[in-house]
Write a structure and sequence with these properties.
Layout lengths: L2 E5 L5 H14 L11 H15 L3 E7 L2 E10 L17 E9 L8 H15 L4 E4 L6 H6 L20
Helix pairs in contact: 1-2
Length: 163
């Protein structure tokens, strides 16, 4: 099996959106939590990210069929807090929407997609790469050198917060 990784075209944005939807379903997001206009939301996001966040997507092809994809971009333009560091010390890239069709998993496709996105982010000057990992994806990312940092999270939907 020959796997080819290439940059996705704008005509493939809908496929990227479909992969993002399927990834969300794979990690357990219930149908009633997803907006019915999810395709439009994703396509608008991609268009905006392409304009000002150096967005790129990559696809994996096997025998001419696209079997996986991954998207990446600058983390944010302004960030979540004041960034006092010079750009050469902190320019963060973000990888999202990594998806491989179930029958093609465990064949190194996700690793190739991630490597391609990391190389692109490095080309545009990123000094750090972030992503949010599912339980299934975490071992893949760790095998490529990603590590858990000190980010913490509190889910308020199903948790009673009592200070």
């Amino acid at each position: 099996m020959k796997i080819a990784i290439r940059e996705a075209t704008q005509q493939e944005d809908s496929l990227i959106a479909k992969h993002f939807y399927h990834m969300s379903k794979d990690i357990g997001v219930p149908d009633d939590a997803i907006n019915s206009d999810w395709v439009d939301i994703i396509l608008q996001f991609i268009e905006q990210a392409r304009q000002n966040l150096f967005y790129k997507a990559f696809v994996a092809e096997v025998d001419g069929a696209i079997v996986g994809s991954a998207s990446c971009q600058l983390y944010t333009v302004k960030g979540l807090y004041p960034n006092i560091l010079k750009k050469q010390f902190r320019k963060t890239g973000y990888i999202w929407g990594v998806y491989v069709e179930p029958s093609y998993r465990r064949q190194g496709i996700a690793k190739q997609l991630i490597s391609t996105t990391v190389n692109y982010l490095k080309e545009i000057g990123c000094t750090r790469v972030r992503l949010d990992a599912s339980a299934m994806g975490k071992p893949v990312y760790e095998s490529l050198g990603f590590f858990s940092g000190n980010a913490m999270q509190l889910d308020l939907i199903d948790t009673a917060f009592i200070p």
